[in-house]
Amino acid sequence: xxxxxxxxxxxxxxxxxxxxxxxxxxxxxxxxxxxxxxxxxxxxxxxxxxxxxxxxxxxxxxxxxxxxxxxxxxxxxxxxxxxxxxxxxxxxxxxxxxxxxxxxxxxxxxxxxxxxxxxxxxxxxxxxxxxxxxxxxxxxxxxxxxxxxxxxxxxxxxxxxxxxxxxxxxxxxxxxxxxxxxxxxxxxxxxxxxxxxxxxxxxxxxxxxxxxxxxxxxxxxxxxxxxxxxxxxxxxxxxxxxxxxxxxxxxxxxxxxxxxxxxxxxxxxxxxxxxxxxxxxxxxxxxxxxxxxxxxxxxxxxxxx
Length: 305
Fold this sequence. Notes:
Layout: E1 2-6, E2 14-17, E3 27-37, H1 39-46, E4 59-60, E5 64-72, E6 84-88, E7 100-104, E8 109-110, H2 117-120, H3 126-137, E9 145-148, H4 154-165, E10 169-174, H5 179-185, E11 189-192, E12 205-210, H6 215-220, E13 224-232, H7 239-244, E14 248-251, H8 258-269, E15 276-281, H9 285-293, E16 300-304
Parallel strand pairs: 9-10, 9-12, 10-11, 12-13, 13-14, 15-16
Antiparallel strand pairs: 1-2, 1-4, 3-5, 3-7, 3-16, 5-6, 6-8
Helix pairs in contact: 3-4
């Protein structure tokens, strides 16, 4: 089979020919229909998160995949050959951007029935992270005002939809060309970050969902109401700085969770949309990886073997 592999930290991964893996006890072999690339994949490849997600090089890129069960390892029950499934692998294991992957049977969730299987992988990390931020941490209520940074991004596009579903007033930052996209997802107000400082366009915000960090995190404190909540996705926020401004802060660290993923799949079957920037064949996966690393993707980048 073919697979996109990290070969050395800091290098662009390369497609390699590998032997098709064999599932062991409690594992299944999945024929991959689609794999979604994530910013975490870029950080892993650059070596920026070795302390948290150490990998043994060479290693196959990616955590998010959807496909069909091809083979069952011993002791596996509840799944049959041909079942459509979705999963998120452990980041230290990777394995998603390939033609086949061996994964624990316990990590599988039935794939959504309303989305093409080759696209469904886009839910695994981004939608589940947005759910964690908007629903579990923020606990958004109808009538609250939320600012979602990068509303056309992978996580942001789901956060906008989930906040809208919760009945919140949704404000988001996006480039001018993405304004119509995020409005269709449920944004009430769109701030073109390329020409406007968002602090001049919004105030008295109950919750900020920040997938950017750095200076954006610092400036977000200016738009929160007293007692408001800053949720940071890239890294733990400066809690002391937030407290000094009279607001709360939280860090959402996403970990694989089949119950949460099943909930996201259920929402997809009810209409939660996957914003897709592009789909590419496995032969162009290295170029897709580089494109995502540039930070301009609108939604998900999907590799389809």
